[in-house]
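Weekly puzzle thread! Below is a chain. First person to post its structure in token form gets bragging rights.
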Amino acid sequence: MITKFTIGRRHSGDTWNVINLVSDIKWVTDLNFAAGTLTFDLLFDSSFYPQDGDVVEFQWDEQKIFYGYVFKVSFKEDKKFSITAYDKTRYLKNEDSLVWPISTISDRFDTVCKMAEISHKVVNGSDYKLPAEVADNKTYFDMLKSSIDKTQKATNQMYYVLANYDVVELRKAPYNELNIIVGDQSLLTGFSFEKSIDEAANSVRIIKKNQAESQQTSSTSSVSEESSGEDPAKTSFNYTDSIAGNVQDWGKLQKVENAKDKANDAQMKQRADELLKEKNKETYTLSLTCLGDTSLIAGNSVNIQIDDLSKAGFWINNTAIMKATHTFDVDYKCDLEMKVNEPWLENNSSE
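Winning reply:
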């Protein structure tokens, strides 16, 4: 049950207890660099009008669930406000231009949070030194995503950003390996599973463009090439391919990438092999609907025991939550999107 739900002005100190006025509460956490979201309806009360920027605090069964700010308010003929609030990670959508020195993901997380003026904490840091780079006109989320992706590629360890009530944290995934079982005899009320090769590639071609007139190579994309007015008689391409054995099973699914400037044949072949390894795989989607539990949030992992899924040839044991949607009602439930295309990388970490 709701044990706290207040809305308050950010600086005046005025706060309203709206426990008896709220309904249709949904809370979403998502690892895909999206702010935590709380949506709810609020019954009209002439003594109080919600405003953009108001502080929202929500607790369920004495558990601190959400601390954030109103970003959207609508009002309809049913005399209810429909409100969208975001947690503090929303301010990581602020845009900026920065020159990063050689530094770690922990350093960069600390820097952007200070610039966004949000309380934060490095729960799990990394010692891996990222190269210096320029981030021009990018969101702080984009800057962190780039740094996290590079850190994961180098160390085999995934990091993510999530709000822990009113503090934004940098964490290592999985943050908490829950002992909870989501399955036939425990919490589960429904599931769907999908596998796909729609985004896969089993043939990779790295292309270098040669222009006879200038004898230079270019990494310009094909779209800009078509509009550049280049002379077909003076343009040719060199190709470096990497092809997987499962072409006979899936058919040829080809991805093309332009070679970096001055890349030699060996470098082009290395890049083709790397990209093939990355793209030559099925993707899997497992969605679960289960009874509500406040620990089922993005970044934590749970144990899966679904007999029908195993009988259909898919064995999924402990896996991670990528996105969690909690619907707080008389029947409190969760909708979970799980990470099943590859295991968490904790056990293979080189750190």
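Puzzle host: Confirmed. Bonus trivia for everyone else. Residues 177-197+282-340 form a domain with the Elongation Factor Tu (Ef-tu); domain 3 fold (CATH 2.40.30.150).
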